[in-house]
From TrEMBL:
Pfam families: PK
Name of the molecule in the record: pyruvate kinase
Organism: Perkinsus marinus (strain ATCC 50983 / TXsc)
GO molecular function: ATP binding; kinase activity; magnesium ion binding; potassium ion binding; pyruvate kinase activity
Alphabetic keyword roster: ATP-binding, Glycolysis, Kinase, Magnesium, Metal-binding, Nucleotide-binding, Pyruvate, Transferase
Named cofactor requirement(s): K(+)
């Protein structure tokens, strides 16, 4: 399979320089990925997840952290302050259950927007 990029090509994977890119359109494939087998120090990919209602419970957040979540993104264009605050509190609780793991928090504040 060729993607028009230079580098090796494999079934469902393409290697661009030193970064391995997984090509999938199935969220179940990504959810089943065992990211814990990668060394987070040498891994060249940062996993960022936009927090949505399905990610707000502590159990799901613990699973995401153990799978290699690096950045939790909060999109303030959707939801309200209370829901984002609850999710952040749950993220802190989940991190207590994952000693030695760290997750950065990205706040995407609502700014000027043009809608047509």
């Amino acid at each position: 399979m060729s993607h028009g990029f230079s580098g090796r090509s494999m079934k469902n994977h393409s290697v661009l320089g030193q970064a391995a890119v997984c090509i999938t359109d199935q969220m179940a494939d990504l959810a089943a990925w065992d990211g814990s087998s990668c060394d987070p120090i040498t891994r060249k990919t940062t996993l960022t997840c936009t927090m949505g209602p399905s990610d707000w419970d502590v159990e799901t957040l613990v699973k995401m952290i153990n799978q290699g979540l690096n950045i939790a993104r909060f999109n303030f264009s959707h939801g309200d302050f209370e829901s984002h605050s609850k999710c952040l509190a749950n993220l802190k609780e989940a991190l207590k259950q994952c000693p030695g793991k760290h997750v950065a928090v990205m706040l995407d504040t609502k700014g000027p927007e043009i809608r047509s």
